[in-house]
């Protein structure tokens, strides 16, 4: 993938991303201190066309594919991890709304071409079937984007007599949720990813979609919309959305580390750039960051080639490769921080924030290396992954 091969609208979004990245960089520290994105950063995001990227053209969106998604978010990721994370997930969540039943989609997109929506997708809630829909209750953590949210998506388990796990996503007006301020964290503080609570909310059937069908790229939206994007398995796409902020940060800090080396003098007066140890470190992190990005891009290429033909084995392999890319990028940032001296840990230094953000991002459930490697290893041995949703 490259910017030159994107459609004209994709190249336009890349240019918009470059301008938005300047805004994100200016608001990175303020967002961290507020423990949510600044209103100014969100306003600039709304004024761009980026959140329309994955919305179907039928609803006024751009209907662009994952190649544009990757290029745009990686640019934003160099500016700030938290604000690019918000953007990546807001974009992906607009795509998720396009997977729901057509009757809901038509009403939902009738007066908008994108929405700001968190998605707490872990099926932590209970959804009791009732006439015409479900009665939903529960508490969900990690609701990225909730502080500026308008709608939301949450996951829930619907009880079945046969014992089969029936997970569903539910689309909700955020006015029906209660937000609890719990986001006191040392990394990714600028995302404002607080908890949401729901107590016996009646949700119509049309505002729900099967998690399993979304995992397999065969949710209702796959039949409604022509674009291959809407037949893309959800979890590899979600993993891609979550991976780009740390990979973009690694890319940025490798570049800036090299520039600082040309100016930084060590004890005794020698330039760090003349140190053989520093030269080896720079080469190590450059290769590491490049390799992490290539792993991600290769996984995206395979995902786009397979779409809804991807088996559970395929999806397990893609998840493992993306998780590996994220951990390698985190290690690059850690190495740079350790090689940058004590001044890198001043609160006004972007590298200390990048390190804290990277450590937090790698804690995301989709990047749990032992779990993803076991899932991949089982698949390599011809055994079904144990997790219900892959």
Question: Topology, pairings included?
Answer:
Blueprint: H1 8-34, H2 39-47, H3 66-79, H4 81-97, H5 102-108, E1 119-130, E2 133-140, E3 151-158, E4 166-173, E5 178-180, E6 195-204, E7 208-210, H6 211-215, H7 220-224, H8 234-261, H9 276-306, H10 312-338, H11 350-361, H12 369-380
Parallel strand pairs: 1-3
Antiparallel strand pairs: 1-2, 2-6, 3-4, 4-7, 5-6
Description:
The protein is α+β, with helices and mostly antiparallel strands and 390 residues long. It has 3 domains: 3-113, Acyl-CoA dehydrogenase/oxidase, N-terminal domain (Butyryl-Coa Dehydrogenase, subunit A, domain 1, Orthogonal Bundle); 119-209, Butyryl-CoA Dehydrogenase, subunit A, domain 2, CATH 2.40.110.10; 233-380, Butyryl-CoA Dehydrogenase, subunit A, domain 3 (Up-down Bundle). It contains 12 helices and 7 strands. It has helices at 8-34, 39-47, 66-79, 81-97, 102-108, 211-215, 220-224, 234-261, 276-306, 312-338, 350-361, 369-380, and strands spanning 119-130, 133-140, 151-158, 166-173, 178-180, 195-204, 208-210. Strands 5-6-2-1-3-4-7 form a 7-stranded mixed sheet. It is globular. The mean pLDDT is 96.
Task: Offer a concise description of the structure.
This protein has 390 residues and is of the alpha+beta class.
- The termini sit apart by 25 Å
The total tally of domains equals: 3
Shape category:
globular
Rg (CA only): 21 Å
Number of strands: 7
Major sheet: size, sense and barrel closure? 7 strands, mixed
Mean pLDDT: 96
Total DSSP helices: 12
Kindly estimate the percentage of residues that lie in beta strands according to DSSP.
5-15%
CATH overall fold name of the largest domain: Butyryl-CoA Dehydrogenase, subunit A, domain 3
Which class of the largest domain in CATH terms? Mainly Alpha
What is the H level of CATH, i.e. the homologous superfamily of the largest domain? Butyryl-CoA Dehydrogenase, subunit A, domain 3
């Amino acid at each position: 993938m490259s910017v030159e091969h994107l459609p004209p609208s994709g190249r336009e979004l890349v240019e918009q991303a470059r301008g938005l990245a300047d805004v994100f960089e200016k608001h990175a520290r303020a967002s961290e201190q507020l423990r949510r994105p600044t209103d100014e950063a969100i306003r600039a995001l709304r004024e761009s066309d980026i959140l329309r990227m994955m919305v179907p053209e039928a609803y006024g969106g751009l209907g662009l594919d994952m190649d544009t998604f990757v290029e745009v978010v990686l640019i934003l990721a160099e500016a700030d991890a938290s604000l690019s994370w918000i953007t990546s997930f807001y974009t992906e969540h607009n795509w998720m709304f396009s997977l729901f039943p057509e009757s809901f989609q038509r009403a939902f997109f009738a007066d908008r071409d994108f929405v700001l929506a968190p998605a707490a997708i872990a099926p932590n809630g209970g959804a009791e079937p009732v006439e015409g829909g479900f009665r939903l209750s529960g508490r969900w953590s990690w609701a990225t984007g909730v502080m500026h949210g308008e709608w939301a998506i949450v996951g829930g388990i619907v009880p079945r007599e046969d014992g089969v796990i029936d997970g569903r996503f539910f689309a909700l007006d955020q006015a029906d949720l209660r937000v609890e301020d719990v986001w006191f964290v040392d990394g990714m503080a600028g995302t404002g990813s607080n908890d949401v609570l729901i107590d016996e909310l009646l949700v119509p059937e049309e505002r729900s979609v099967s998690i399993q069908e979304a995992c397999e790229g065969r949710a209702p939206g796959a039949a409604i919309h022509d674009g291959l994007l809407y037949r893309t398995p959800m979890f590899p796409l979600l993993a891609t959305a979550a991976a780009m902020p740390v990979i973009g940060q690694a890319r940025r800090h490798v570049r800036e580390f090299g520039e600082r080396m040309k100016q930084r003098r060590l004890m005794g007066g020698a330039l760090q750039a003349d140190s053989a140890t520093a030269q080896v470190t720079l080469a190590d992190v450059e290769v590491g960051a490049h390799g992490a990005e290539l792993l991600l891009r290769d996984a995206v290429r395979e995902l786009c080639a397979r779409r809804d033909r991807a088996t559970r084995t395929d999806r397990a392999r893609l998840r493992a490769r993306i998780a590996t890319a994220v951990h390698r990028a985190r290690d690059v940032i850690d190495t740079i921080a350790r090689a940058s001296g004590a001044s890198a840990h001043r609160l006004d230094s972007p590298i200390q924030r990048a390190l804290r953000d990277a450590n937090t991002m790698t804690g995301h459930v989709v990047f749990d290396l032992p779990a993803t490697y076991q899932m991949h290893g089982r698949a390599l041995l011809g055994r079904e992954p144990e997790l219900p949703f892959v």
